[in-house]
Write the structure tokens for this entry.
Amino acid sequence: MNKGIFIKVILIISVLSLSGCVTKGPMESFFGPIETPNYVELLKGSVIESDEIVISASEGTSAVGIRAIGGAVIATDERLIFAQWSTNLLKYSTVYSVDYSNIKSYGMCSPLASTLSLIGKVFCVQEENAETQFATQQVDSLMYQIKKRNPTAIRSDLD
């Protein structure tokens, strides 16, 4: 084998090997490892109680001031949760949690009422004295779960 071809083959193999090292894995994602096989076990270790059943989990964002935070919007059989993902600690921490029975109203937020950092399907949940906003693609599933588990909650975007 020609020495020049051998060096080119080694160089190509090295570049291909190193390119796999620079791609972000699910643990370094803004939203956390939502699409991984042991996702529910990871949640049970940090965000949900061991007896809770995860109904759905999706990538989501919430806002602290004007800054967006990434994580997961989680619907369990008992409550709705927004958990922020920490790429430094490699774990979720609960930012927002509400039992379905405490939700007074819910629905799609007005785009003008939401902060600029929340882009996409912005969803609002109103409790007794507070409103929380977050964005996720799974809004329809969340609204269904709230309606099913708290029929007295009012759908605010249908007036």
The helical segments are 3-22, 39-46, 139-149.
